[in-house]
Specification:
Elements: E1 5-9, H1 20-24, H2 27-34, E2 56-60, E3 65-72, H3 75-85, E4 101-108, E5 113-120, H4 128-141, E6 145-152, H5 157-171, H6 178-189, H7 199-202, H8 204-207, H9 221-228, H10 237-253
Parallel strand pairs: 1-2
Antiparallel strand pairs: 3-5, 3-6, 4-5
Helix pairs in contact: 3-4, 5-6
Length: about 250
């Protein structure tokens, strides 16, 4: 097509052009001059500016979590905390505390509250619960309240379980069931404050169809016992032992 194509994220091997903000700097109006610089030669296509097109960016990155933290404050106070948290901070000489985190503060007119709006670009580096707790610390310093949070779009199950595990350890709780852990994460992060958070509609893994209806783990105990008695090599002693061990763990957790 003859248009400049840039790689970003894990697909880019150049540090100064790995993120979308780095590549977008200058916007459409500055792209023509940018393409004249050798350091901004596109990864694919030509360096010729195409007015009707501009440029294309494609790449690979981890799942991005769009996460908003509710504040009973002014927009300016929310933005001040966002600057404290986001990796870019207030500039090169004043970086923020949280890596892999972008953020701004804004006013949510329909709810009459302010929000810290964050893009979590690597939940393994900075999880949701870390951002939430850090925002609460700064809010306390400013004498303003954090009143829950909201997720925009879908979220991986692992992010919810990581939040649950954090609060389980912090509060000395004993929660083993996955559904109860998800419930705990929703409660502690206040994810239903503005609108109901339905795990079946918001957690990626719960939205996906089951891969198979013939998995042993999906059988009832009655069906499992009958399948063990079938004239087949599996399920056998290993599966029976696993079931007994799981039952033992369940008894131990009572």
């Amino acid at each position: 097509m003859g248009v400049p194509v840039f790689l970003y994220g894990a697909a880019s091997e150049t540090e100064y052009r790995k993120t979308m903000p780095q590549i977008r700097a200058g916007e459409y109006e500055g792209l023509e001059d940018k393409l004249k610089e050798e350091r901004w030669a596109p990864d694919f296509g030509c360096s010729t500016f195409v007015p009707s097109w501009g440029g294309t960016v494609t790449g690979v990155r981890k799942f991005l979590i769009a996460y908003n933290i509710n504040m009973l404050s002014t927009k300016e106070q929310a933005h001040r905390i966002a600057l404290n948290l986001r990796e870019k901070g207030r500039g090169d000489d004043q970086p923020g505390r949280l890596k892999a985190c972008q953020g701004i503060g804004w006013w949510l007119e329909e709810a009459n509250i302010a929000q810290i709006s964050l893009n979590m670009t690597d939940m393994d580096v900075t999880p949701m619960h870390v951002a939430y707790e850090e925002a609460k610390k700064d809010a306390e310093d400013l004498k303003v309240a954090v009143t829950g949070s909201e997720l925009v779009g879908l979220v991986p199950l692992s992010a919810m379980l990581a939040a649950a595990d954090f609060y389980i350890e912090k509060e000395g709780l004993m929660v083993l069931d996955e559904n109860q852990k998800v419930h705990l994460a929703i409660n502690r992060l206040g994810l239903s404050t503005l609108s109901p958070f339905n795990p079946k509609e918001r957690i990626i893994e719960y939205c996906l169809p089951s891969s198979s209806s013939n998995l042993l783990i999906q059988k009832t105990v009655n069906d499992f016992v009958l399948s063990v008695g079938d004239r087949s090599s599996a399920p056998g002693g290993g599966s029976v032992s696993a079931l007994l061990a799981a039952l033992g763990c369940g008894l131990g957790a009572m």
